[in-house]
Specification:
Blueprint lengths: L2 E2 L11 H11 L4 E6 L11 H10 L4 E6 L7 H7 L3 E5 L6 H10 L3 E6 L17 E5 L14 H14 L5 E5 L7 H6 L4 E3 L2 H4 L4 H8 L4
Helix pairs in contact: 1-8, 2-3
């Protein structure tokens, strides 16, 4: 089953309540929260309060993507704010195993994110300990970028790695995704699609989400 996690970063923040209700009505499975610190990526977005405010207004799972250095310093704060899934970048934390244990200790689903150039072998010793892998299919930091083609091969190889170990780990992909390439990435093994501009710029977000799920 394909799930769609629209990025709230593409919403009008002055109308965030309306954006959340639109996503609920349009059939979104998660709300993707891109937290950026201006250091790990060249952009600054929002923090714990935004997640806390979103939590008060929706029952949808909050898929919190920490694009920040030393994410272990803030894991518990985002957990307490209401995150359901917490993603940390392998490139941003020295002690990844310790950080994953911290997420698990908070009772949250655990995800590891990889930048486009990062090889899959960094997952060798922790794949059994996580619920999801997030593959960035653009260089993270800004929305509206073009999809990096080798992300398809990367997803295929990750799917093979997961299946060879008999695991049930989700593969999420973020960056340059829309109805035009949803089947391409899901055929490669992706089962959670992050889409920001594709959903929020659509005349009919419900239709776009259905197409991302390959229901049309």
């Amino acid at each position: 089953m394909i799930k769609v996690s629209p990025s709230i970063l593409s919403a009008d923040f002055t109308k965030i309540y309306e954006a959340v209700k639109m996503l609920e009505n349009a059939g979104a499975d998660y709300i993707h929260c891109d937290v950026m610190d201006g250091k790990f990526v060249p952009n600054i977005t929002f923090g714990q309060k935004m997640v806390s405010d979103l939590r008060r207004h929706t029952k949808l799972p909050l898929d919190v993507h920490l694009m920040i250095v030393e994410p272990e310093r803030y894991v518990m704060e985002f957990a307490e704010a209401g995150a359901d899934i917490i993603s940390v970048h392998v490139e941003a934390t020295i002690h990844l195993n310790r950080t994953l244990k911290l997420i698990k200790s908070a009772g949250k689903k655990c995800c590891v994110s990889l930048n486009p150039h990062t090889p899959l072998n960094v997952l060798d010793y922790i794949l059994e300990d996580i619920d999801m892998v997030l593959l960035s299919s653009v260089n993270p930091g800004f929305g509206g970028q073009s999809f990096i083609p080798y992300s398809i091969r990367k997803a295929q190889e990750l799917k093979q790695m997961i299946e060879s170990r008999g695991l049930a780990v989700d593969i999420e992909m973020d960056g340059g995704l829309g109805a035009h390439n949803a089947k391409l990435v899901t055929d490669a093994g992706v089962n959670v699609i992050v889409a920001g501009n594709a959903v929020f710029s659509a005349e009919d977000p419900k239709d776009i989400i259905s197409r991302l799920k390959l229901e049309k």
